Amino acid sequence: MSRSTPQMRAFAEVLIACETDENPSFGTERPADFPVFEKLRSPLAMLMGSGGFRALLARALALARAEIPWLRAVHVKADGALAWEEELHPPLAAAEILEGRIVLLAQMLGLLVAFIGPGLTARLIEEIWPKILLNDLIFRQRR
Fold first, then answer.
1. Helical H runs in 1-143?
2. How many whole angstroms separate alpha carbon 64 and alpha carbon 91?
3. Are 134 and 65 in contact (CB under 8 A)?
4. Is the pLDDT at 38 greater than 60, yes or no?
5. From CA 101, how far away is CA 34, in angstroms rounded?
6. Pairwise CA distance, residues 76 & 59, whole Å
7. How far apart are CA 133 and CA 128, in angstroms?
8. Share of the chain above pLDDT 70, in %
9. How far is CA 113 from CA 27, 53, 73, 84, in A?
10. How confident is the model at residue 56 (pLDDT cuts 50, 70, 90)?
C-alpha cells in the first residue's frame, strides 16, 4: 500500500485550486468528473500512448483506493476517462470528493515523477497550467 506523499499531495492541491479558480462549479460535479485528468489526458497520451495513460491512471486509482475507499466506485473507461458507479457508493459530501481527488492526483503525480522524472513532469505541468509557478514548489527542487 503506497500512501500519497505530502509533497505530491501539496502539488495536487495546487493544481486542483488552479482548476477550481478557472471553473467555480468544479466542486459540484460528480466524483468522477475531474477536469485535471481531462487536461492531463491528451498530452500524456501523446507522450505514452492512450493505453499508457489508461494504465498509469488505473495504477494511480488502485493506489488511491487504499486511502480513499469510495474510489472503489470509480473506474477507468477505455477512452481514459473516469467513470463513477453511483450504485456502488452512497452520495458523498463535497469534502469527501475533494479528498479523493487530491489523493488520486497525488498518486498520479508520484507515478509520473517515478516514470518520466521530475523535470519532464514539471515541464508538462507548466505547459498545461502556465500560471502555476513551479519554482516555489518542492516538487521542482528535486530536479
1. 6-22, 35-65, 94-116, 118-128, 138-141
2. 19
3. no
4. yes
5. 8
6. 10
7. 12
8. 80
9. 27, 14, 26, 27
10. very high
- CB neighbours of 37 closer than 8 A, spacing ≥ 6? 57, 81, 82, 105, 108
| Segment 31-49 mean pLDDT | 86
User: Counting Cβ atoms within 10 Å, is residue 88 exposed (0-12), middle (13-18) or buried (19+)?
Assistant: exposed
**The three three-digit cell numbers of residue 140, written as one number:** 521542482
Instruction: Report the amino acid identity of residue 123.
Output: R
The grid coordinates listed for 79 are: 477512452
- Per-residue model confidence as pLDDT tens digits over 25-35: 555 455 567 88
Average pLDDT of the chain? Answer: 83
Give the pLDDT mean for 74-87: 86
Nearest to 129, CA basis, from 22, 31, 9, 5 = 22
Instruction: Give the chain's largest Cα–Cα span.
Output: 44
Region of 85 please: left (phi>0), alpha (psi -120 to 50) or beta. Answer: beta
At residue 82, the 3 state secondary structure works out as strand
